[in-house]
Design brief:
Layout (H helix, E strand, L loop, with lengths): L2 H25 L3 H7 L2 E2 L2 E2 H25 L1 H6 L13 H18 L5 H19 L12 H8 L3 H10 L10 H7 L4 H12 L17 H7 L4 H10 L10 H7 L4 H7 L7
Antiparallel strand pairs: 1-2
């Protein structure tokens, strides 16, 4: 058994797992969507990908420290000149440091092409929202069924009747997430089941979370109107915007929040 070889191979395998989980976390939806829709990819949830990434990060760090220990002499030789004198900032070290600093600053200050790469990840994350939708309010899945129905304006007695009719086992004080897990469905499934039965002609139920991150055209889609109609509604409030503008940025430019604008347009959020 060769510990030096085991260390190097452990580094390699943990790096492969971390690369995979890192890519998955880069494209996973925000937690509010993942938790709401019980999102999974290749059999694993976002939380499981995060747990794997953190666990293998520890393994990678430990293996790296052992790798440095077993390869101390070769590594220190990289920082010596032709006269075998130790010089920390050799040309190779300077170049390596510059590359590291460029990536660090580029990511922090959103400099191109780093910003393009990060925006690409954001676009992927936001695409999940279009597919799965959002909760009617932040962390709705953590509310008890009783509290949830009150906040979204659903009659509790009728809600119980709907759940019983559809063989959904529940307890009023249990969270939507716990009820969903017990019935092997998502919190979103339970909400949609209730919403379908409560939906009235002409009534619009708005998903309130994530409005600020959406573009004007996406908010319009959420309201089931065309972008042009939404822009006209905004214009009536004295707000000028374009379809591709971020809703939050437009709201802030007029010293308002996205919800302030929605309220002015006549939409109400849960109590």
């Amino acid at each position: 058994m060769n510990l030096k070889k085991i260390t190097s191979l452990t580094m390699l395998l943990s790096m492969i797992v971390m690369t995979y989980t890192g890519i998955m976390l880069f494209i996973t939806p925000p937690g509010r969507i993942a938790n709401w829709a019980n999102w999974e990819l290749l059999g694993l949830s976002k939380e499981q990908y995060a747990d794997l990434h953190s666990t293998f990060m520890v393994l990678f760090v430990v293996a790296t420290l052992l790798h440095i220990y077993y390869n101390w002499k070769p590594m220190t030789s990289y920082m010596k000149n032709t006269a075998k004198q130790m010089i920390v900032f050799t040309k190779d070290m300077v170049i390596a440091s510059v590359i590291t600093i460029v990536f660090l600053i580029g990511a922090i200050y959103q400099i191109t092409p780093f910003s393009t790469f990060l925006d690409f990840g954001t676009d992927i994350k936001e695409s999940w929202e279009k597919q799965y939708g959002t909760a009617p309010y932040s962390h709705a899945e953590l509310s008890s069924l009783k509290s949830f129905c009150k906040k979204v304006g659903f009659d509790l007695t009728k809600s119980e009747e709907i759940l019983k009719k559809n063989n959904i086992q529940y307890e009023l004080e249990k969270s939507l997430s716990q009820i969903a897990k017990k019935n092997q469905v998502s919190p979103q499934f339970i909400y949609n089941l209730l919403k379908t039965n409560f939906q009235k002609d002409g009534e619009t139920i708005i998903e309130l979370t994530g409005l600020g991150k959406k573009q004007i055209k996406d908010v319009a889609q959420n309201l089931k109107i065309t972008p042009k109609e939404f822009l006209l509604k905004l214009k009536a409030l004295g707000i000028e915007a374009k379809e591709d503008d971020k809703f939050k940025e437009i709201a802030e430019s007029y010293d308002m929040s996205p919800m302030d604008i929605m309220t002015k347009l006549g939409y109400k959020k849960p109590n």
